[in-house]
Design brief:
5-stranded parallel β-sheet; alpha/beta; 6 helices; elongated
């Protein structure tokens, strides 16, 4: 039996409806899926070739006429250079259209009717992602932080300790600490203030130790018992912004 990929799969939404972009994507990221939004089908075609094993859900209600979408999707599925699994998103309930994509074109991630609502659509898409092993064997993924977009501070024995975030996941982050003090491994750091693109979140952190090659780069885990719902939302929204910036600035 084929093992799921260790790193999981990048999941792209091409021309997503606003309800997906605003609500569903945030929820899926909170559940541990690596989600990106694409707004150009020509650029999307180049991106998925760069990321073999990725998944892309296409909103066929936008931008192109249905026959054009059919040709676009068929070209991707017929191209041996592209190893991306496709799914369809639409408010169209036409059974013949659905059967064409499912039975004739055999898109592996399904045809998802969005008229059912956000909660129902989220469950269906989540199940499709799990069936296609989108999480892989990892517990969480890391997003690279834009320079200066995330900072932390807390009160230590020597006064105020500050630093900047380098990368982040739902489980924790790496941060470059200014004048790092001595800290015991597995020590709990209370009431750390995170400033994430202007939004604030408070959390208790567990110090795992410095990075093997940099004593000023600390590896820190969130103490999940300390996170309020608002803090979780702020952190996951920041992860979403970090992911999106990576894909938006990528040269393809």
């Amino acid at each position: 039996m084929e093992q799921p990929p260790i790193e999981g799969r990048k999941v792209f939404f091409l021309y997503p409806h606003s309800v997906i972009q605003d609500d569903l994507v945030d929820e899926l990221i909170m559940q541990g899926f690596e989600i990106y939004i694409l707004r150009d089908h020509k650029r999307a075609r180049k991106l998925i070739e760069r990321f073999p094993g990725s998944i892309m859900f296409i909103n066929i209600d936008e931008r192109l006429e249905e026959p054009e979408w059919e040709a676009y999707i068929q070209e991707i599925q017929d191209n041996p250079e592209i190893q991306t699994r496709l799914g369809i998103l639409s408010y169209n309930t036409d059974r013949d259209l659905m059967e064409k994509y499912l039975m004739e074109m055999m898109v592996p991630c399904g045809y998802i009717q969005l008229k059912q609502g956000v909660k129902e659509s989220t469950v269906i898409i989540r199940n499709a992602l799990l069936a296609n092993e989108a999480k892989g064997r990892r517990k969480s993924f890391r997003a690279v932080c834009e320079e200066g977009s995330g900072t932390l501070n807390f009160k230590g024995d020597i006064g105020l300790i500050t630093g900047k975030l380098l990368d982040i996941s739902a489980a924790g982050f790496a941060a470059q600490i200014d004048a790092p003090p001595q800290m015991d491994k597995n020590a709990v750091i209370r009431k750390v203030q995170l400033k994430l693109r202007g939004s604030l979140a408070m959390a208790d952190l567990i110090f795992l130790g410095p990075r093997y090659d940099r004593q000023d780069v600390w590896i820190l885990l969130f103490d999940p018992t300390s996170l309020t719902d608002n803090a979780k939302i702020t952190i996951n929204h920041y992860i979403k912004l970090c992911l999106q910036r990576l894909i938006d600035t990528m040269d393809v």
